[in-house]
TrEMBL record:
<dbReference type="InterPro" id="IPR035396">
    <property type="entry name" value="Bac_rhamnosid6H"/>
</dbReference>
<dbReference type="GO" id="GO:0005975">
    <property type="term" value="P:carbohydrate metabolic process"/>
</dbReference>
<dbReference type="GO" id="GO:0004553">
    <property type="term" value="F:hydrolase activity, hydrolyzing O-glycosyl compounds"/>
</dbReference>
<feature type="region of interest" description="Disordered">
    <location>
        <begin position="49"/>
        <end position="75"/>
    </location>
</feature>
<dbReference type="InterPro" id="IPR008928">
    <property type="entry name" value="6-hairpin_glycosidase_sf"/>
</dbReference>
<feature type="domain" description="Alpha-L-rhamnosidase six-hairpin glycosidase">
    <location>
        <begin position="257"/>
        <end position="482"/>
    </location>
</feature>
<feature type="compositionally biased region" description="Polar residues">
    <location>
        <begin position="50"/>
        <end position="75"/>
    </location>
</feature>
<dbReference type="InterPro" id="IPR012341">
    <property type="entry name" value="6hp_glycosidase-like_sf"/>
</dbReference>
<keyword id="KW-0378">Hydrolase</keyword>
<dbReference type="Pfam" id="PF17389">
    <property type="entry name" value="Bac_rhamnosid6H"/>
</dbReference>
<protein>
    <submittedName>
        <fullName>Six-hairpin glycosidase-like protein</fullName>
    </submittedName>
</protein>
<keyword id="KW-0326">Glycosidase</keyword>
Amino acid sequence: MYKAKTFSELVFQATPSDQPWQQNNISPATRTAFPVRIHKTEGTVAGATSLCQPRDQPSSQSFHTLHSPKNNSSRDTNLGSCLFTSADSLITFDFGQNICGVVTLKFGPRSSKTILGLAFSESSDFVGRNSDKSVDFKVTDGHVTVEVYPGISEYTMPVEKLRGAFRYLTVFVASKTRDCIAHVTSVSCNMTQMPSSASLNKYSGFFHSSDPLLNKIWYAGAYTIQLATISSVQGRKSDYVVKSRGWDNSGHVSQGLEVLTDGAKRDRSVWSGDRLISTSVYHCAFGGVNSAATATAIDWIFAGQQPDGRLPYACKPADLYGSDTFHLWGLLGLYELWQHSGDFQRVRELWVPFKKGVELGMSWIDSDYGLAKIVCGLDWGRSVLQGHSLSLNVLLYACLVCSVEIGNLLGEPEAQLAIWINTAESLHVRINELLWDAEKGLFKDNLSSTLYPQDGNCLVIYYGVCDSERSKTVSERLFARWNQFGPINPESNGMISTFISGIEVMAHHQAGRTLRALALIRQTWSYALSAPWSVESSLVEGFYKDGTCSYPSDKHDSSYISHSHPWSTGPTSFLSYKICGLRFTNPNHVTWTLQPTLADLDFCITGFTSAKTGYLVGGWKRDSKNLLQIAVKSTPGTIGEICVPLILGKQLKMTVDGVNVNLLNLEMDEGWAYVKGIEGGCHTVYAWYLD
């Protein structure tokens, strides 16, 4: 890559593992993680720093300090030497970023019989002798007990006690006797995420731009997805909810080797509402490596379908129902999987249960208002949905539109297609007639509500239910709600939701307010990665409007908040697909487009891998104020288009692969000139903007 003399050459040579973008990749080079620093100590301890190692580096510390001379001849250069010698001895190790897995402690010859405790925390806010909560608000996770015996020994946590996500490990003396010594020579963690991956830091996609912050956020999203992709037999056991203490992560949460879950620490299971964002990000960063983790999740959702067609709120082992919106999200999850993986065979196999689920949704439409009415009102963590819910009706509209697209391919009868089309059109009209408040410039939560929700208003734009003028108005009103940390969510009592804010990012862009979309990413996700409580690596599910890592009510223990939650990763796929502008345009991934959104960046490059058609890479660079360079490399058998932006008041001159282009031969509209029919290979467009 360093041999590239031009931006085009850079694009043509780029792979996901190249520098400089690989320096933003925080996935480890090996599965063995060591603490990188000491967060705090208590009581009497000696040699704590000897147990720390630079990330992915062998230790320079040797087994020395407190050894007797006769043992020096057998020292291990990968070992340290640390003594816990008082009943109140405690060390909190900092692994430098959120990790996961099974911890191993090695003990040296100075150990006596004693008991240690191991407690885990994602955020430094909740470091202590008890782990942060991962099971339920009413369950105390507590700590893992380790019995230490005299002499050299080793302890590895049982697999069911693996910790789904943590940055901080607190090791403390739990014995009640005074004369106890724990001589620890090594602390390590075997990381268990994405078990199919032979090299955790070898992605099949990448992103790089002139903004280092956006680059960091892209990779934080990818890492969040990786942490939450777990073995299918290492999910959270829901029967632990009935216990008062402890956790068990040996639950069966899907078929197959691995599955993309809702969160690394919790809930380590498949929830039907998370797939819009997490599926797209997974395939953007990892899809060419293995797409099974998103497919097994969809299979697990549909495996839980009830006789009336209802899909789960949360899949087994949680086995929860009671959400109309998550039912519809589950249906849309199959569509998203098809779009991003090209797996139409799975769509074909699940078509009958899909239609049954759509039929259930249509049964909620009443004759009085022509809108669907909530039957089961649980949702993503917001207030319970009621009445003719805005989100419910937008999601049902989207399901119907998807049904028509799939039904056409599968040969559904014209009469059935007509029912779906007519119902979707009717919902579109009724949503705009009955739920729009012109005075507020927003859609209301239901017919009688005075709440104007963030979620429904973002979804209305995202799924194209309102026109461009209303989209712009809604964008303005949503923007007015931001504080210094991001959009305050009124339907969840003032939380800042990285899930719904991720959809808001896309909504602003679709409303033609891309600079606002980028400002939101820079504001909210920058804070999420730099706040005093942040894990500074993976992405939090949400935080309170005052910037604290807390829930709106003291009734809920804030240590339960997940700091590795895939629904928070929306900026990752948005930056690749919408800002760089490179994306496939059909589910078979045979066609693609590169449509730059220049915004306030100087350059942008991205690449990703399709399991169907291979690696696609492209990008753009402002070579000067009046010169734009666009380059793409695609595989043989694919065909694409490059969309060249037009600038008001400027005359466009263009070359494609060094050949002057007659603009009269191009299709053009108000904002773009389209270079079509680009076959597989390396291609460069230069666009000059002349006064």
